[in-house]
Amino acid sequence: MSRILDLVSAELRHLEDSHTYKYEVSLQSAQDSLVRVNGKKVVMLASNNYVGLSNHPVVRKAAIAGIKKYGYGVASVRFICGTQDIHLALEKKISKFLGTEDTILFSSCWAANEAFFASLTNEKMGCETYKDVIYSDRFNHASIIDGQRLCKTETTDRKIYKHADVDDLVRQLEEDKAVDYRLRIIATDGVFSMEGDLAPLDRLVEIAKHYDAILFVDDSHAVGVCGKAGRGTPEAKGVHGKIDVLTGTLGKAIGGAAGGYISGKKEVIAFMRQKARTYIFSNSLPPSIVFGASAAFDLLTKDKTIVKRLQRNTAYFRKKIVELGFTIVEGEHPIVPIMLGEASVAQEMSSALLKEGVYIRGLWYPVVPKGEARLRAQVSAALRRKDIDRALKAFRKVGKKMNVLK
To answer: For this structure, is 26 an active site residue?
Structure first.
């Protein structure tokens, strides 16, 4: 044990000398447009609470009702005694919202992504010898990458195509036409969390059909956010209901608690119920989360102003932050990367902004490429115009003080 403690301690000293992520800032309030930090209310610009449902009274009331009616937890996995009628109802509600045939719930989208790739590629399914291939966008989320790492190397080839570059993807598919792959899988985020850009799903649907490939999309940062009704990247790109496999989370826009899902063809979902280890051997979602997530979907379905308010706030913030003189990654998503270049600048500016009443986090290598350090602003529908203006005022003050702005 002493040996590993020495190794860990040495690595910690190395990390402390570099620009590593520190977790000393804790919230003293519920997640909302304003949060309490060190006894002071600050504007929240770092949360996945995109449509403001994490602390919405309807969602809170639903979660409390879930505990009152069904208890604190299920104390079981799904196939033993952990399936309640509310789990089945939520799966149907998600399927209807996404335009798919069926849905299976997981403890997180990370668990869902691991389950999909490992379950599908590691099963013989009547083939004694076979080879599968996965084409993955270079900027895909870590959960997609880790899911693919669980695929056996002797039966699965893993290939990377340039970020959102359909020409590079087609080039690789053409090169592999002669290879007798059992399954071809194209894997992409719907919205890329570090950049805030949307995958070209309209083109990817066509490509997947042409090459008889499965199109897998993790839409965690898009459901409740993108598209006219918040139904995600497929809706925004005009291919709603045409994606083979969708995964997503209930831990961002959909109430912000926990949980994930795989949604798609009923045969695929039935297969996952039998083979997905992170489903079979994990406890079911607790009733409070099921009730809260269900209420969140109902709010999005019934109240069209929620998504519109988010999109107005996003457009306003993007416009004003550029007018101040900051460089951002252009787009339309509420993830707004404010480019600063050096990790030290991002780290210092994040701390300075907190002192000025804005909670925002910096991103730097290895999370993003070297030289591309940034602050990642995340706009919410919960923000009032005066909250956004307060944040912009702080950006201007800190930017000038640090000579980021001229």
So the answer is: no
Q: Identify whether 193 is a catalytic site residue.
A: yes
Instruction: Determine the Cα–Cα distance for residues 135 and 336; give it in Å rounded to an integer.
Output: 27
pLDDT tens digits, 307-326? 999 999 999 999 999 999 99
Q: Determine if the peptide bond prior to 366 is cis (ω within 30°).
A: yes
Q: Among 183, 184, 255, 186, which residue's Cα sits nearest to residue 218? A: 186
The domains found in the chain, sorted by start residue, are 23-50+304-401 (3.90.1150.10), 57-302 (3.40.640.10)
- Mind listing the pLDDT tens digit for each residue in 245-269? 999 999 999 999 999 999 999 999 9
Q: Which position among 54, 143, 193, 288 bears the catalytic label?
A: 193
CA 240 – CA 97 distance, rounded (Å): 10
By the 8 A CB rule, do 312 and 382 touch?
no
Beta partners for residue 156, in sequence order: 132
Distance in angstroms (rounded) separating the CA atoms of residues 337 and 318: 10
Amino acid at site 154: E
Annotation marks residue 252 as catalytic: yes
Catalytic option among 54, 252, 284, 294: 252
**Considering the entire predicted model, what is its pTM?**
0.95
Q: Parallel, antiparallel, or unpaired: how do β-strands 358-359 and 40-44 relate? A: parallel
276-303 residues labelled b (16+ CB within 10 A) or e (exposed): bebbbebebbbbbbbbbbbbbbebbeee
CB 157 within 8 A of CB 134: yes
What is 259-273 written as a DSSP string? -EEEEE-HHHHHHHH
